[in-house]
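Ops channel
N.P.: pipeline sanity check, posting one input/output pair.
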C-alpha cells in the first residue's frame, strides 16, 4: 500500500512541476501576432506615407517588444495602482465592452435595405457659403503687412514689423480664437485699412505638442475613430489612436483638424 501511495505522490509531483514549468514559461513569453504587426505597419504608413523597410520593420517590432517588457515589469511593481488615468481607461474600456454586448452586426443586404428605406436621413441639404470682399476706391487703402508675434497680456497682443521694428498692439477682440495659436516670433499678416488694423491672418498649418491624450484601445486601428487630445495651448482636437502625449503634430488652423505627426 505504501508503495502505491509513493508512486501516486511521485506522479502528482511530476504533473505539478510540469504545469509550473509551462505556466512560468508563458509568463515570460511575448507573442507578436500578425494583427500586431499589421497595426504597427499601418501606423508607420500613416506617419511616413510609405511602407517600412525590412530593417525598419525589425526595429519597429523590437520597440514593440521592449514596450511590452516594460509594461509587464510595471504591472509586477504595481505601478498601475492609484493611477487615475489607468483607472479611467479601464472604466472606459469596460463601458465599451458593455455597449458591444448583444449588438448584432448587419450584413450587406440588411444595410442596403435600411438605406433604401431611410434615404431621406442621409441626404444633406444645400449649403451656402459667403466670403467678405472689400471694394475700395483706392486699392492702396487696403494693405497686408507681415509682423512677428511678440507677446500678449490680459487685453492686447503685441506684434513687431521685422523691417521697420515698429511695434503694434491689437485688442484681443480683434485677434479672437487665433490668439491661442500664436507663439513667440510666429510670422502673421496684419490687414490694414487706411492704417487701421482690421484682423490678422496666420499660416494654414502650425505645429503643436500634444499635452495630454488617452491611450488607444486594444485592437483600435489607424482607420478607426479618432480620440480627444489637448494641445500645449489648451485647444482640444481629435487625433488618431497612435498619437501619444508629448508627440508633435501639424494642425490645420482653419478647421482645427489633425494633419500628421512629425
Amino acid at each position: 500500500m505504501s508503495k502505491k501511495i509513493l508512486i501516486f505522490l511521485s506522479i502528482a509531483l511530476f504533473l505539478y512541476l510540469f504545469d509550473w514549468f509551462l505556466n512560468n514559461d508563458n509568463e515570460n513569453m511575448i507573442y507578436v501576432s500578425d494583427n500586431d504587426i499589421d497595426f504597427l505597419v499601418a501606423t508607420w504608413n500613416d506617419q511616413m506615407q510609405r511602407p517600412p523597410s525590412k530593417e525598419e520593420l525589425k526595429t519597429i517590432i523590437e520597440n514593440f517588444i521592449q514596450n511590452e517588457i516594460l509594461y509587464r515589469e510595471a504591472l509586477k511593481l504595481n505601478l498601475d495602482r492609484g493611477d487615475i488615468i489607468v483607472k479611467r481607461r479601464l472604466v472606459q474600456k469596460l463601458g465599451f465592452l458593455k455597449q458591444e454586448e448583444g449588438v448584432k452586426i448587419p450584413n450587406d443586404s440588411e444595410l442596403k435595405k435600411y438605406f433604401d428605406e431611410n434615404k431621406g436621413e442621409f441626404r444633406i441639404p444645400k449649403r451656402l457659403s459667403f466670403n467678405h470682399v472689400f471694394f475700395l476706391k483706392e486699392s492702396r487703402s487696403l494693405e497686408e503687412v507681415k509682423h512677428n508675434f511678440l507677446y500678449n497680456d490680459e487685453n492686447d497682443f503685441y506684434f513687431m514689423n521685422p523691417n521697420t521694428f515698429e511695434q503694434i498692439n491689437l485688442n484681443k477682440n480683434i485677434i479672437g480664437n487665433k490668439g491661442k495659436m500664436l507663439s513667440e516670433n510666429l510670422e502673421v499678416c496684419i490687414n490694414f485699412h487706411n492704417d487701421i488694423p482690421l484682423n490678422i491672418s496666420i499660416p494654414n498649418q502650425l505645429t503643436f505638442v500634444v499635452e495630454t491624450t488617452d491611450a488607444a484601445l486594444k485592437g483600435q486601428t489607424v482607420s478607426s475613430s479618432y480620440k480627444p487630445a489637448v494641445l500645449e495651448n489648451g485647444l482640444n482636437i481629435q487625433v488618431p489612436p497612435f498619437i501619444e502625449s508629448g508627440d508633435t503634430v501639424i494642425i490645420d488652423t482653419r478647421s482645427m483638424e489633425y494633419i500628421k505627426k512629425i
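N.P.: looks fine end to end. Residues 92 and 98 are 10 Å apart (CA to CA).
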